[in-house]
Design brief:
The complex is a heterodimer.
Chain A (H helix, E strand, L loop, with lengths): L2 E5 L2 E3 L5 E8 L8 E6 L5 E7 L6 E3 L7 E6 L4 E6 L8 E9 L2 E5 L3 E5 L2
Parallel strand pairs in A: 2-11
Antiparallel strand pairs in A: 1-3, 3-8, 4-5, 4-9, 5-6, 7-8, 9-10, 9-11
Chain B lengths: L8 E4 L5 E6 L11 E6 L6 E4 L13 E6 L2 E6 L8 E8 L5 E3 L3 E5 L1
Classes of the chains: A mainly beta, B mainly beta.
Amino acid sequence: EVHLVESGGGLVQPGGSLRLSCAASGFDFSNSWMHWVRQAPGKGLVWVSYVNSDESATSYADSVRGRFSISRDNAKNTVYLQMSSLRAEDTAVYYCVRDISYSFNVWGQGTTVTVSS
Amino acid sequence: QSALTQPPSASGSPGQSVTISCTGTSSDVAAYNYVSWYQQHPGKAPKVMIYDVSRRPSGVPDRFSGSKSGNTASLTVSGLQAEDEADYYCTSYAGSNNWVFGGGTKLTVL
């Protein structure tokens, strides 16, 4: 069965850093594109970042570019999101998602990030 | 990276059909056949219902269908059932490894 399990969320002060992890199982992770998508409380879904199968290509939403960094370890079937210079508006549930045909095909359960003093 | 435009709400009675629109631009919806739709129940992770404009993943009822004309995509839910009540989001590939979501539509089954 296909599974994505996020971890690493929590409470962090403005300006702080956090690294999210997403452990994948049940599919060919090393040949899969991966994304992070977030959802602020009571708000809609927002695409955050993308990484291709061998990390040769990455991309970011304008709102996080320069502050967030996506990476992956295919040996560990894990994708990461390093977040720095965090702001209150980064408060959200962060979902790890597997891409199939440019769609967000498989979703994790999400991990909550709260940026507050 | 402007969000796609969806109506904030839609509704229908059980058994009826409802269509939710998703309007983008010549740079996203019109440019690529990579529009997808997601269903999200409260407190749950989203679930893909339609991808590649009109393809249904296995397990998604054929009551759900998708289409596109120009810069507007649509999701139609036929034979509405109580369990279809949820938030629905569209998304489109926007080129250069960028994706954009719609603001979401709350579907109410009356």
